[in-house]
Amino acid sequence: MRQTIPVLALLITAIVIMSDANAETVALTSPNKALSLTFSDDEQLARYTLTRKGKPIVAPSKLGFTFEKARPMYRDFLLSEVSRDQHDSEWEQPWGEQRIIRNHYNEVVVKFSHVSDKTRFFTIRARAFNEGVAFRYELAGQGDLTITRELTEFTLPDSHLATAYWIPGQGRERYEYLYRKTPLQQVAKAHTPFTVSYKDGSYIAIHEAALVDYAGMSLDKQEVGRFVASLAPRADGTLVRKQGDFVTPWRTITVGDEAVDLVNSLMALNLNEPNALGNVDWVVPGKYIGIWWGMHIGKFTWGAGEKHGATTERTLDYINFAAKYGFDGVLVEGWNTGWDGNWIANSELFSFTESYADFDINKVAEHAKSKGVKLVGHHETSGGITNYEAQMEDGFALYQQLGVSQIKTGYVAHGQNLKRRDENGIMRYEFTDSQDVVNHFIHNVKTAAKYELSINTHESVKDTGLRRTYPNWISRESARGQEYNSGWAKPNPPEHIPMLAFTRMLAGPMDFTPGIFDFDYPDLNTGGGPEWGEHSYMRPHSTLARQLAQYVVIYSPIQMAADLPENYLDKPDAFTFIQDVPTDWEQSIALQGEVGDFIVFARQEKQHKHYSGEDWYLGAITDEHAREISVPLTFLSEGAAYEAQIYRDADETNWQTNPYAMVIEQRRVTRDDTINVKLSAAGGLAVRFKKL
Q1: Of 312, 331, 570, 689, which has the most beta carbons under 10 Å away?
Q2: What is the DSSP letter of 536?
Q3: Is 665 part of the annotated catalytic residue set?
Q4: Is the pTM of this model over 0.85?
């Protein structure tokens, strides 16, 4: 329902307007009255503050812009023209971690006008939810503008009491860094989502929503506790170019008493526009296997030759395996020409329609169709945006003809090195989150929708909730994933997933590619094998139970069983959980956790042709410390009994010397019971609650 409530009522409950000789302020409160977002023109500067239960969350922080030619907008501005609204409704995701989402907020619109030139103004639209606040700029009638700075600040008080969890912004490896835990005072430039904890137990996360035709925002420290929006530059050094009326992405601040409060927020989705694609029944969540991990561990190659992975016969075998064990699709990387030599540098050589000689794409597609399995397409661009866009529709048309419904795209390029030719044919080099590249990703997704194709973007710009508007943007990577555990790099440490849960995963789904069952492949750097000795740090920092738990903890509507098929057949009991676990959920609840330490998630399956909608799943993952967890089962349905199928670390499990030790057991439980389990170091827990 949508309501516009009387001005007097809002003045009493949600909006307070105060004036004195120095400044005017406009304050918006959340529906539960806990949050208060205030705008002011103190000293004729555009500013805002945020408090929660009377406690400062964001101290006075600047708003505004500077431009290449136009006069700046932030100083000598007065606050005026307030409008107000209230909204409370529900909407349904076609797929997601939560089927029904409540969208409940209070809204205020404020206008900052120049003291002597009323044609110079900008508008702020702000919304206060119970779990956080968001605001965006709305500019009208300003003509052509080139933004050189967005002056939005986030001034965090009591910085000496705060700990930050972050990765570098605008760096060489895009978003593929290990997260750092440092005092807030030691942060330099950081990507968002940017998570902060305080000694009193409270948490905040700063991010953005609806990143469209704009540059992605990092946070750049100006002084202790004060950060300013740092927009990824275009190739020419400017930040954003706009013509006519425009709005910016939402700047979001999520607040919680516990770390899991940040995880359970769906505010970013609510800030995005509704589905723009119409009927999207062709977007289908599911699980897939693929010719992929073998390349990372050196068994196969992407390029042609004796070890070429994407051969016709091997793909037919994978399709047969997928059909037998209930997988929806088979990903094939390295099927198309362009992978030979230094493929990261040779992005202009990729073809998106021409197969290698040993890969009969038509035969493979026909066999997949006969088995009820779909090929998962793959387009690696190596950051060659112009080369890809020139072939994109031909590649999509080919996939549509072959019955492909999902494509994994890739943009492996380092730093400011994505290649885009301008209107004069000059090659320009861009960041992953510059305005032009942001627009390319959306163009890719919208074009794919014309061919009823879903996109899973790797090396992508961060998620900002656009899966609501474009439901075929089904997943993305945008973080340090499983491939770093394959031996060619230092593996992800045990804290990585409990860190992702409270940082990267606040943005949206991640195609982490879980499910590695064999940790004893050769170390590509040393040649070591199962007995790596001093090089044992190169094996995955994981137990087998942890690999299963990833399917519940790390949310994505498409999940890969990333290992080689033979490794699943070697451990059929553990493989059963991967076969059982769904990827589309009725509801999801982060139950317990601390940033970088551990995370416990419960999810209820969504009703589907293969799922009753009555079963629940539980996943728990810990860092390098063994820990005991106690999980009340109050999320289960009242009056129902379940068979808890438990996959847990054994007493003797050790990720370095005995990672495969796992106990599989069953017990009858109800919502009145509690599960008490010890997680080994780098371990995990996976449970299916099958309703009886």
Answers
A1: 689
A2: G
A3: no
A4: yes
